[in-house]
Amino acid sequence: MRQALIDLIKTSIFFKYSLPNGNIERSVISTQKDDCYECNDDNEITKIIYNALIDYSYNEYELDEENFQNLFTKALITKLHYSNDSEKLQKLGFYGEILLYAMLRIFYNSNAAISRGYFYHILENGETKGFDAYHFIDNNGTPELWFGEAKFYQNMNSAIKSVLDKIDISLSNNYLSENIIALNEHNNNFNLEGTKLQEIVLKWDNNPDINIIEELKSCNGKLIYPIFIIGQIDTDYDTTIKKAIDYINEYTIPEYSLDIDVSIFFIFLPVINTSKIKEDVVS
């Protein structure tokens, strides 16, 4: 990640507190503390999304500041389904995905195993399927797959619902295996050569009959599942967070089953006006 972008993120987004905090509980679905962040100016969020678009779309070894504008234009056309349809642009998911990429890199010290932009295809008519981030941490020899979700909605409850409604699918052996298999198509674009994750992908490529979940279990692999929720602030910061947690804790969450260790937590970032942020990114 470029230093100018790192500096922008660190001076724009600030850690507020973890949950539980005071009278605000941790979510019932979380297996570790939920984290809450704030930004004092929506314009800074706009700048981060705009400037991180390149880093989100390409791996670091491909970035050439001399051809920055060319890469930017190519990313818009081939990786983000960009169009002149303002209503369609509001619904696209890359705003939250780019922010999640930035948050995981800066605040959680994860490395992008592969840039999310590789999963876009110019001929696809609609949003690209799969997790919203493919990050990786080697924790003293134990591989941690930071495969997360990001939702950037006006209403936080709607954002939360869109994740929880399908969590039984997202946290399943089949879904995780399919996403790791999908990495095989982009093996030449890995940021983390020589990692256990790449080793498993290559092993599957040589022998598609292997059980990917069993391979992960054999090396004590773990799925870290951050759920990043960006939505508009309601009355004040603490009230916004409490209402989001209350909604989660009262929600009927589908049961999920995954045969490796999984750690789940929420990341909250309330903003003033989600639509304006998206409009400003586009403009």
Topology diagram in text:
Blueprint: H1 3-10, E1 13-19, E2 34-39, H2 42-57, H3 68-78, H4 86-91, H5 94-107, E3 111-112, E4 133-139, E5 142-152, H6 156-164, H7 167-170, H8 173-183, H9 196-206, H10 212-218, E6 222-232, H11 237-250, E7 261-271, H12 274-282
Parallel strand pairs: 2-7, 5-6, 6-7
Antiparallel strand pairs: 1-2, 3-4, 4-5
Provide an overview of this structure.
The chain is of the alpha/beta class and 283 residues long. The chain contains twelve helices and seven strands. Helix 11 links the parallel strand 6 and strand 7. Helix 2 crosses helix 12. The radius of gyration is 18 Å and the shape is globular. The model has no long low-confidence stretch (mean pLDDT 84).
